[in-house]
Amino acid sequence: WQVLVDSITGMSSPDFDNQTLAVLRGRMVRYLMRSREITLGRATKDNQIDVDLSLEGPAWKISRKQGVIKLKNNGDFFIANEGRRPIYIDGRPVLCGSKWRLSNNSVVEIASLRFVFLINQDLIALIRAEAAKITPQ
C-alpha cells in the first residue's frame, strides 16, 4: 500500500507511525503517504491513482490525474499540478505544469475540497540526516 486511507472518527489517533512520511487530512478521510511519490485525482475504472479525492467530497471538477506529491532526497515535499484546474496551496494558485513546495500544515485546496498537509517531522529528519551522510560536502 502506497497510501492508506483512514476514516476520521471522533477519537483523535496519532497521525504518524514509523512508515508514514506525511498525511493529507481532509474533513472525512486521511490519506497516509508511505512512499516518496503519490498521485492525486479521481479514480475511474480505467484510471488508478494513489489518492482518490472523491472519497472526501464532490470530485467531478477534479482531473483524473490532478497532481503528484513527491518527497525529494533533501526532505522537501513538492506538489506538481497536472490537472486543468489550479491547486491552491495556502491560498496561492499552482497552475497546470507548475509545482510548489509543501510545508507542514500547508492548506491544499483542490476544486473546493480542502486538506491539511502534515509532515512527519521525526521521519523526515532521519531522511535528511541519511541524505547528508551520502552527499559529499
Automatic annotation (TrEMBL):
**InterPro entries reported in the protein's UniProt record:** FHA_dom (IPR000253), MCRS1 (IPR037912), SMAD_FHA_dom_sf (IPR008984)
The reply on keyword Nucleus is yes
Instruction: Tell where it localizes.
Output: Chromosome, Centromere, Kinetochore; Cytoplasm, Cytoskeleton, Microtubule organizing center, Centrosome, Centriolar satellite; Cytoplasm, Cytoskeleton, Spindle pole; Lysosome
Could you tell me the superkingdom of the organism this chain comes from?
Answer: Eukaryota
Which keywords, in A-to-Z order, does the entry hold? Answer: Acetylation, Centromere, Chromatin regulator, Chromosome, Coiled coil, Cytoplasm, Cytoskeleton, DNA damage, DNA recombination, DNA repair, Kinetochore, Lysosome, Nucleus, Phosphoprotein, Transcription, Transcription regulation, Ubl conjugation
The UniProt GO MF terms for this protein read: G-quadruplex RNA binding
CC annotations in GO:
centriolar satellite; Ino80 complex; kinetochore; lysosome; MLL1 complex; NSL complex; nucleolus; spindle pole
Q: Which GO terms describe its biological process?
A: chromatin organization; DNA recombination; DNA repair; positive regulation of transcription by RNA polymerase II; regulation of telomere maintenance
Q: What is its main location?
A: nucleus
Q: Where is the FHA domain?
A: 38-94
Identify this protein by name: Microspherule protein 1
Species in which this protein is naturally found: Callithrix jacchus
